[in-house]
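Morning!

This is the sequence you dropped in the shared folder:
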Amino acid sequence: MPLRLLFLSLALLLAAGQARAQDLLTKRNGDEVQVKILEITPLEIKFRRTDNPDGPLISVYKAEVFMIRYANGAKEVFGAAPAPGAPYLAAPRAAAAAAAATGPLPGPVVTGDVVLAEDEVHLGGPRLGITLLTNGPLARGRQEEGYHDLNPFLTQFGWQFETRLFRLPNGVAGLVEFVPLVGGLEQGKFIPSVSGILGIRGPKGFEFGLGPNLTPIGANIVLAVGASIRTKAGINFPINLAVVPGNGGVRISLLTGFTVRRR
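The structure's back. Tokens below.
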């Protein structure tokens, strides 16, 4: 019995030690997270969750954090969040470095406009799907040499090149996408198309964009909507519906695939 009590006591001591080794991060919205603080910069707080110590490095803006209570009992309270419309004092790291070398930047950086230097992200991956040609585009396509027996349903294969230009603190991101496709291979056709899309992606992955589309039957505007499903492994699975009006009808494409970070 004493031996069992000894083991139980050691286990309790280890558990207590582990609990004390945790830092407690309290956000301004009231959320509390058990973490291990790794770095605090002028703009961000970087940590790993203690319930997933081998998981990804997580960053939050200091403006979103109310207090950190460290494992040793010390606590650090951060300044009040700026009022709506007030200047946001935390400048991006790159901007802060530039300001140190050349002087203050012209004009304030306001809440919602903070852009991190490393936030330009390049993604790429294959796209595949199907396109429906309504009567107008189908008739126009059949006038082209070699496309006289064109069917209204086309398979599409291609690649998506994506650049995330910025990401706001609320998670909204600005995107530029370049999507070359080849359609009609199942019919023995080679029908190229190229789209350049400027768009917005929300914090939950919903996205929409607009841009030019070029094909052998002419130039038009493409409107694309969809969602990008993100995974912890760093792989995104986009699903998009694209509509191209013109030539007396519309072309409707449903595309999917995956993208990964290119660098």
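Headline: Helices lie at 2-20, 93-102, 135-142.

More detail when I'm at my desk.
O.
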